[in-house]
């Protein structure tokens, strides 16, 4: 589930990697935005027909939805309150950066 400013919720059928030991879902920002099949590219194509004014707005991925509930919602649209029962919101968002290997001063983290 993605929240797009100012007030739009969208649920995409997008899969990403996971780490069951850490309880993390892992997606690179470029996979979400840049890849030809990336979620926001699909979203931009969809929104260009429905509401082009939100394309390029800030967004945040706020959770996941049970796939069976998403599939059912595609067959027969449901109200937001009913769909929220099947959403698992994220506890926190983590960002990781790669630090090249090498020697660094001892006082540098």
Describe the 3D structure:
The chain is of the alpha+beta class and 109 residues long. The protein has four helices and seven strands; from the N terminus they run ββββααββααβ. Strand 3 (17-19) and strand 4 form a beta hairpin. It has one domain (2-89). Helices cover 28% and strands 19% of the residues. The chain has helices at 29-33, 39-50, 67-75, 80-83; strands spanning 2-4, 8-10, 17-19, 24-26, 59-61, 63-65, 87-89. It has a three-stranded antiparallel beta sheet, with no helix packed on it. The model has no long low-confidence stretch (mean pLDDT 81). The radius of gyration is 17 Å and the shape is globular.
Protein traits:
109 residues, 3-stranded antiparallel sheet, two-stranded antiparallel ribbon
Backbone shape = globular
N-to-C series of helices and strands: EEEEHHEEHHE
- Bin the strand percentage: 15-25%
How many domains? The number is 1
Structural class: alpha+beta
Q: How would you write the strand order of the largest sheet?
A: 2-1-5
Q: What are the low-pLDDT stretches, counting only 5+ consecutive residues below 50?
A: none
Cα-atom Rg, whole angstroms?
17 Å
- Can you summarize the main beta sheet? 3 strands, antiparallel
Per DSSP, the total helix count is 4
What is the tally of beta strands?
7
Q: What percent of the residues sit in helical stretches (DSSP H or I)?
A: 25-40%
- Average pLDDT metric: 81
Distance between the termini: 34 Å
Instruction: Give the assembly state of these chains.
Output: single chain
């Amino acid at each position: 589930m993605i929240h797009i400013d100012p007030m739009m919720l969208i649920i995409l059928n997008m899969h990403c990697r996971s780490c069951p030991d850490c309880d993390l879902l892992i997606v690179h920002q470029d996979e979400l935005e840049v890849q030809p099949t990336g979620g926001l590219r699909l979203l931009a194509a969809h929104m260009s027909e429905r509401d082009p004014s939100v394309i390029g707005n800030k967004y945040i991925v706020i959770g996941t939805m049970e796939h069976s509930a998403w599939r059912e919602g595609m067959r027969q649209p449901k109200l937001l309150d009913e769909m929220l029962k099947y959403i698992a919101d994220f506890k926190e968002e983590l960002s990781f950066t790669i630090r090249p290997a090498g020697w660094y001063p001892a006082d540098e983290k």
